[in-house]
Write a structure and sequence with these properties.
Blueprint: E1 3-4, E2 9-11, E3 20-21, E4 26-32, E5 37-38, E6 43-49, E7 54-55, E8 60-62, E9 65-66, E10 71-72, E11 77-79, E12 81-83, E13 88-89, E14 94-95, E15 132-134, E16 139-140, E17 145-146, E18 151-152, E19 157-158, E20 163-164, E21 172-175, E22 180-184, H1 188-197, H2 204-209, H3 211-214, H4 220-236
Parallel strand pairs: 1-3, 2-4, 3-5, 4-6, 5-7, 6-8, 6-9, 7-10, 8-11, 9-12, 10-13, 11-14, 12-15, 13-16, 14-17, 15-18, 16-19, 17-20, 19-21
Antiparallel strand pairs: 21-22
């Protein structure tokens, strides 16, 4: 069932099946698969979503992609970024904010913006390249800042209020400003198997049927069983 508030402004969008769009939302050039939910007072432009993405209120998202079954908390901002599947993003998180080129004479916005009526006829410089990339099954704590041109590996954990200025390894836990590795979630041998498993690519029905495996502490036997099941799925294709 579609639930779209009367106050929502939706322009040139394909929201797929069963969208939920709440109060005072503005959407421009947005594409979703199914069961997208977008909270009050959010503004989203030129962005695509996978299945069952949940966007909470007061989000600002531009020129990005967010994978299936990912959610974002309140006051999330995201520019020119790609975010994987099954990510958990808390409130007040910023991803991919624009850079100012401090090697130029000035860092002032008049070099690239018309807001001060100073900029010349050229386009200035692109502050949003290259993309910021967030892997799959990444957990980002409240208040974290992920700088532009940073890649976060699959399974990583970003601590609350961390400022991430460099790439983050898969399944590492980082914190601080600037962020540094505190520890890894699992031993290296287990991480290698998890990266081979790529469980976030499994069909959702498989995940539902094996919910208890996902809800249990990871052991060698659990991981071996999942790898065997993955191989069987590939064999049956």
């Amino acid at each position: 069932m579609n639930l779209i508030h009367d106050s929502a402004v939706i322009r040139n969008c394909d929201l797929g099946e069963y969208p939920k769009v709440w109060k005072d939302v503005f959407l421009l050039n947005v594409k979703a698969s199914k069961n997208i939910s977008i909270g009050d007072n959010s503004r989203i432009e030129n962005t695509s979503f996978g299945d069952y993405v949940n966007i909470q209120r007061n989000n600002l998202i531009y020129n990005s992609y967010i994978g299936r079954y990912t959610y974002t908390g309140r006051n999330f901002t995201c520019w020119h970024s790609r975010i994987g599947a099954f990510c958990s993003i808390s409130w007040n998180v910023s991803i991919g904010g624009a850079n100012h080129d401090y090697k130029r004479l000035t860092t002032s916005a008049f070099l690239y913006s018309d807001i001060f009526d100073i900029k010349g006829s050229n386009q200035g410089y692109n502050r949003f390249e290259p993309l910021c990339e967030i892997g799959n099954d990444v957990w980002i704590g409240c208040g974290a800042v992920i700088n532009r041109n940073v890649k976060i590996g699959d399974g990583a954990v970003i601590g609350a209020n961390a400022v991430v200025t460099k790439d983050v390894e898969p399944y590492s836990i980082v914190g601080g400003s600037p962020a540094r590795i505190l520890k890894y979630r699992f031993p290296k041998s287990v991480i290698e198997k998890l990266l081979d498993l790529k469980w976030w690519e499994f069909p959702v029905e498989f995940i539902k049927q094996n919910y208890e495996l996902f809800n249990s502490e990871l052991t060698d036997s659990t991981l071996t069983k999942l790898l065997e099941m993955k191989n069987q799925m590939n064999y049956n294709k």
